[in-house]
Amino acid sequence: MDDIDSDDIPSSTLGATPSELGDYEPASLPDDLNRGTETPTGTPSATPTGTPAPGASKKSSSKAGVNSLTKSGALKQKPGPKPGGGKVKSSSGGSAKAAVNPGLKQTTFSMVTPINQKNYYTEYLKRDDQIYVYRQVQEETKKAKAGSAAVSNNIKGTPSAAATPDPDGTDGKEENQTIVIHPGSRNLRIGFGVDPYPKTVKMVIARRQHETKKVKQEEGAEQEDVDMADDSDPIIAAIKTVKKDLKERMKFYKCRIQPGSTDLTTNYNTKNTQPEEIPEHNDPSKVDWTDTSDKKEYYVGESALRVKDSNYALRWPIIHGCFNETKMYSSPQEVLGDMAIILVEALEAELGVKFTDYKNYNVVLLIPDLYDKTYVSSLVDLLLHKMDFPRVALLQEGMGATFGAGISTSCVIDVGAQKTSICCVEDGMVVPDSRVNLKYGGDDVTNAFLKLLQNISFPYNVDPNDTNDMLLMEELKTQYATADEASIGVSTGQLIRPRQNKLTQKYTFKFYDEGMLAPLGLFYPELFEPLNTMYKEFFRDRHRLFPRNMDVYESNKEDNPVSGAQTALLIKQGLIEAPEEPVEGEAVVEKEIVDDVEQPYLFLTGLDHAVIQSIKSAAVSDPSRPGKMYENIIIIGGGAQLAGFETLLVDRLGIWRSMARNDGEDDGVSDEAIAVMPPPRDMDPQILTWKGGAVFSRLKVVEEMYITQKEWDLLGPRSIHYRTMFAY
C-alpha cells in the first residue's frame, strides 16, 4: 500500500459511500471484448493487466497498481468520476464509455443548423420539376421519346408509314380523337376537331313535370305578366330617344323621312286582324310536332321546342353566359344534370359517339373571356368525372375567334343571344384589362322589336312566355330588322304561324322604322331595360345554387377575374366609387371589385362606349395598341348579323371617340383608322369561335394544355392554373 499515491485516487472516490459509487460501476463486457486490447497493428497486447508498459510514466504505473489492488479486493472503493466531468479510466487504459458503447451515437437525430436570418433563400415551387403538373409533362415527353426511339429501332431498315414523321405534329393520332364543345345561352355547337363546320343543337330540354311543380310554374308565369305590364311605361321615353337619334342620322345621310308613316301602318294593322289559312298542300313551313304519347321523361334540342304538351316544361341550363339559378331549378345537380343530358344526346345523335366511348376522346371546351371560376370548374368536373372524358383543355372565346379568323391581333366583339362580350387580343392572347361583359344581346333586340310592333297594332297577340311565339318573332327579326337607314320605308311583312293538328295561319302587317329602332337598342340599352324580365330574376337569384368562388386566404374576398375596362365603366355610371389617389407616405389599400354585387339588374352601357373603353384600357400597358385594335375589329355571334351593322358601329365609334378627344381624352389614333374585318372565306360569324377551337385542337401545344382525370382528382381546380395559356 506504500506505493499507492493518494493523488492518483479521484477526490470523489475518497469518502464516498458504495451506493454513491454504484452508478459508475462498469457493466460486464462480452467475452469477445475481454480478450484484451489490440495494438494498432491488430495483434493482442502481451502486456499483462496491472504491469506498466516499458517507458510508461510513474503515474501510469501507479494507476495500474490501483487497478490491480481493486481486482484483488485490497481496495474496495469503486472508481468514480472526477470533479467537473472527468472520465473513469478502465483497466485496459481506455475509457469506460468506449468500452460500454464503442463507436455508437447517443441519438439518431441530427442537429439542425439555425437559419441565417439576415440572408436566407428557398427554391420551393420555383422550378418546374417541383410542380406535379410540370413533372407529368416532362415524364410524358420522355415516354413519348422513348417510345418513338423503340419504334424506330424495331423498324430500322424497313420502310413503313410508322417510320415517317407526322408533319402536323399529331404523331399518328386518330383524326376524330378530339371533340370541340362551345356551350351558349341558346345554342350548343359541337363537332370533331377536323370537321369543317360544327353541329348546332338548341341548349334546351323539355322535362315532364309533376302536378306540384306544374302549378308553381304557372303561378310564376302569371307573376311575370304582371311585371311586364308594370314596366311598359318607361319604354316610351326610351323609344323617343332612339327615334330622335335615328332622325338625325337619316338627315345626315340625306335619307327621305316619310311623314305620317306611323299612322299609316297603325291603321293598316288595325283593319287586317284576321289571318289567312294556308292549305296543307301549299304549306312550305309545316312543322313536325313532337309526339309525347310515349311519355318520355325528357326531350332535347329541336324536339323539346316542338313539344306542345302542357305536362312538359322547357328549361334552359345556361342563361346570360352563366348557370341558370332561377326558380326553374332547385339544386345545382339539376342544372348540371340537364347539361349532361343535352351533351350526351347531342354527341350520340349528331356525332355518333356513345357514352361508353367517351374514354377514347379528348375535349376542348370554350369558356367566356370574363369567366366565373365556379362555372368553369363545374363544367370541367362534369366532363372529367360525370361523363368520363380522359382529358379536357380550356380556351377563351376571344382567343378562339382570332384562331378561327387566322389573325393574331384584333378587337373581338361577340354579340350573342343574351350577352355581349368585348376583348382585345394581341399576339393570340387576351389582354386581361380589356374584357367587358354586357348582359344583353340578340334576345333583347327581339323583345324590343316585338314591343315596337305592338305599338303599331301588330295583328297577332304574341305571348312572351310561349317559346314558340318568341321563335316566330326571332324569324321576323332575322327577315325585317336592319341597321341600314337607306332601307327604311313603309314595308309589308308576313308572319307564318304553324299550329298543331290545324292549318297554318298567315298574318300580314305593315311597319316603318321599327326594323331599325330595335337594333339601335344595342347602343341605347335603356330600351331593353323594362323588357328584360328574365335578367331581373337571374340577378335576384344569382349565386343561389352555386356559391361564389371566394379567396382561399381571405374569406370575404371573391376570387374571380377583374377587368380594368369593366371597372372603369362601373365607375362612370356611378355604380361603384372610384379608388382614392394614394397620399405620399401612406400605404395603398386595394379595394376588391366584386362582380355582380354592385351592378343593377341590367348593365346600362352602350356597345360603342364599351368598345372605346375596352381599347382604352388595353392601351394602358402599351400605348401602341389602339391603332392595331381599331384597324382590326371583328364582329361575331348571331345577335349582330344585320345588314349595315358594321357601318353603323364604325360611325358611332368615330363620333364618340372624337367627342372624347375634345374633352381631353386623346387615344392617339386618327378618326379614319377604324375598320371592321369581314369574316374569312365567307364563313358564318356565328361559328367562328368554334372553328378557332377546332384549329387549337390540332396544334401540338394542346398536348400540354390537357387536364387529366388524375390531376383533377389530386389538385382539383388548381390544375387549371397550370394547364391554361391565360392567367387563371
Largest sheet: 6 strands, mixed
Specify the CATH homologous superfamily of the domain at 209-307 and 441-528. Answer: ATPase, substrate binding domain, subdomain 4
Helical content class: 25-40%
Mean pLDDT figure: 79
- Tell me what the CATH architecture of the domain at 209-307 and 441-528 is: Alpha-Beta Complex
Radius of gyration computed on alpha carbons = 42 Å
Uncertain stretches: 1-6, 8-25, 32-66, 68-98, 157-175, 214-232, 582-602
Tell me the number of strands.
19
Distance between the termini: 91 Å
Family: Belongs to the actin family.
Region (Disordered): 1-108, 143-174, 264-289
Biased composition (Polar residues): 264-275
GO cellular component, one term: Ino80 complex
SSE blueprint:
Elements: H1 18-21, H2 58-72, H3 96-100, H4 132-154, E1 178-183, E2 187-192, E3 199-202, E4 205-208, H5 211-230, H6 234-252, H7 261-271, E5 276-278, E6 298-300, H8 302-305, E7 312-315, E8 318-319, E9 322-323, H9 332-351, E10 362-367, H10 373-386, E11 391-396, H11 397-405, E12 410-415, E13 420-426, E14 429-430, E15 436-438, H12 442-455, H13 467-480, E16 491-497, E17 504-511, H14 514-517, H15 533-540, H16 564-572, H17 607-618, H18 625-631, E18 633-636, H19 645-662, H20 688-697, E19 707-708, H21 709-715, H22 718-722
Parallel strand pairs: 1-10, 10-11, 12-18
Antiparallel strand pairs: 1-2, 2-3, 4-6, 4-7, 5-17, 8-9, 11-19, 12-13, 13-14, 13-15, 16-17
Helix pairs in contact: 11-20, 12-13, 16-17, 17-19
